[in-house]
Task: structure prediction
Amino acid sequence: MKYVTLILLFTLVGCKSVHPIHQQNVENAITKNALKLLEDKRFHSVSIAVLKDGKSTTKHFGELTIGKGNKPNDSTLYELASVTKTFTGYITAKAVLDQKIHLEDDIRIYLDERYPNLEYKGEPIKIKHLITHTSGFPNFPIKSENKKAFFEGLKLIKIETKPGEVYSYSNTAPELTAYILEKVYQKPFEELVSEFVLKPNNMNHTKFTLNKSDRTRLVKGYNDKNEVMPNFNRTLWGGISGLHSTTTDLVKYMKLQLDPSNLIVNESHKKLYKEGSDFWEGYHWYIIENDNQLLYRHHGGIYGMQNWFVIYPKQNIGISILTNTSFNETGEILEKVVDNLYNEIQVD
Result:
């Protein structure tokens, strides 16, 4: 009986020590990859959040203002840029489940004018085309100075490919999606994001509109010439960009996206358009699935900052990396950091 007690004691001690060791390995991997990134002097700060098996780690490096040594922290607000589109995708998925809209709907049934130009040889643009970048819309709205101008710009669009057949990244489409969501729910898009995503997940520091106090925590970013860049000024609905968030709130967003019991998440993760042998588009998610991995990801880039948000449901891992710099190769460099970080922590 004494030996059984000793075995149980060693087992319990062993179980207690495993978790801190894994946690330390994650922290070491983050530090190693962050410091290596900052060896490139075009980068000034980096914030990384990792969620692994329900345990979160957030770490911050570098300086927000060149020469001041003011390191970012868990309260620092970054612009999410196009990662905002994943929130648009989530609400679109909810609208589909609520039967407010249908993926096969001709988008013109939600518009106040006829728009005969928004089709190709009789083939209409559908909701599913808006959220998979296969609508044939131009990348940027032809007119974007305000919402009224946006609809005037829609009349000038010429669709030159059959909707649903050709991938072409479009910031016009998610703005129209946000408008449609406003119309079917009869609420402002900003309110829909708050009601359906932010409040239920206690993401209290994620928002479109910042107050005076928030602005003191908002990152000012740089280009590759170390010039301070302006923050994004939202003029339309916010379907493409405009959300600000912190690392701790992004961990909460990871938990949402990794919840297999959430029907909206499951809908938003559906593969709607196949772009390559192992590459799909979901509800504004880029999905990679092959024999070795399954991941959902999105990149965000704005004038002075960039980020990647990636989840790996099979490994129960989420990674977010944010930096206060933006130049042509930033996204590619950050993507490699995410890949390295994942490879180092997923075998842990």
